[in-house]
Amino acid sequence: MAYEMGEIRLSQQIFYYLLEHFELREEDEQRLYRAYVEEEAVQNLVKSQAEEAVSTVERYGDVIYLIPKEENVFLGFSKAKLKEILCKSTGTDKDFYLSQFVILTLLVEFYDGQGSSSKSREYIRVGELQNCIADRLKEGVENFSEEEEEQKGIAFRNMLEAYEALRSDDKGSKAKTTKEGFLHAIFVFLERQGLIEYVEEDEMIKTTKKLDNLMDWNLLNQNHYQRIRKVLDHE
């Protein structure tokens, strides 16, 4: 299919905007948004550029997102980089997988995958989430043998060991060697990605429209939802 030069330039402008902002809203850039939505040739060109950049472009509601694929460590994050951001300087793989378990638990507490929207609550207190993490880790250890953990690919024993190795501190420590500091680093990271609102003074977490859209339209279809519940609810 032959494309006109104007279409190519428009697609490049849209893709560059997405590279810079990772999302495109009609209210922020009406010309580019409408070009993507209304011109099939432009949309195809943008998606093709994203594919070459190991990413996808998706429109959820009134927002267009650039979503790096899992293996994309240039636009996304490598395991080593995430470990550096989320874990203590001497962090091990146990600490890294614990950080991912915390994020997974947070998602499950907010989204139940039912109804017109998967979102089931407006906020969660940090203390409540902390209790949920501890409870689910202990339940995992009680309900799965080491062999079953290996089959499921989730090491509850290792993560519980890493979690219990973190000190408790009721003075608001931000050190990643404490439970409170470890969680704080994760919340700050998610907030910087535009996924949550972390109200530190109230020890409260809320989700953003961006995360709600991603969960409703992409991440939490029924297949993904059932896989998550089987891991965390032992079904």
Structure notes:
The structure is a single chain. By secondary structure, the chain is mainly alpha-helical. The protein is 58% helix and 11% strand. The protein has a three-stranded antiparallel beta sheet with strand order 1-3-2, sandwiched between helices. Strands 4-6-5 form a three-stranded antiparallel beta sheet. Helix 1 crosses helix 3 and helix 5 packs across helix 8. It is elongated, with a radius of gyration of 20 Å. The termini are far apart.
Features:
235 residues; mainly alpha; 3-stranded antiparallel β-sheet; 58% helix; elongated
Main β-sheet: number of strands, strand sense, barrel status?
3 strands, antiparallel
E-strand count = 6
Poorly predicted sequence stretches spanning 5 or more consecutive residues: none
The protein's oligomeric status is single chain
- Work out the strand percent: 5-15%
For the largest sheet, list the strands in their spatial order: 1-3-2
Helical proportion?
55-70%
The H-and-E topology, N to C, reads as HEHHEEHHEHHHHEEHH
SS-based structural class?
A: mainly alpha
Total of helices: 11
N→C terminal distance: 49 Å
Alpha-carbon Rg, integer: 20 Å
Summed over residues and divided by their number, the pLDDT gives a mean of 86
Give the overall shape.
Answer: elongated
